[in-house]
Amino acid sequence: MRDFGITAEQLAATLLTAACQHCTSYLVATAWSAPYPVAVAALLPCFGIYAEVGRDIHARSVAGTLARPG
To answer: Could you give the number of structural domains in the chain?
Structure first.
């Protein structure tokens, strides 16, 4: 976060969206309460979702606008 000029205080003050809160709560609860294979199975869809979101961000981006500051 430092590379993007975001302080620890700013990060701590950032609220999660309801969808993010529900998803992370589910994953943490599953990791703590289920056998390892079940926890891994719960995590696997995340990679496909992240890839799809990344493709969408990339398709909408303008060259040079997502570069790191400095």
So the answer is: 1
**Pair 24, 16: CB distance under 8 Å:** yes
By residue count, the chain amounts to 70
pTM of full prediction above 0.70: no
Tens digits of per-residue pLDDT, 3-56?
Answer: 888 899 998 999 989 988 998 999 999 999 999 999 999 999 999 988 998 898
Residue ranges making up the domain that contains 38: 15-60
- CA distance linking residue 13 with residue 7, whole number of Å: 10
Structure tokens belonging to residue 14: 């950032």
SS3 (DSSP) at 35: coil
Token pair for residue 27? Answer: 């994953």
In a domain, 70, yes or no: no
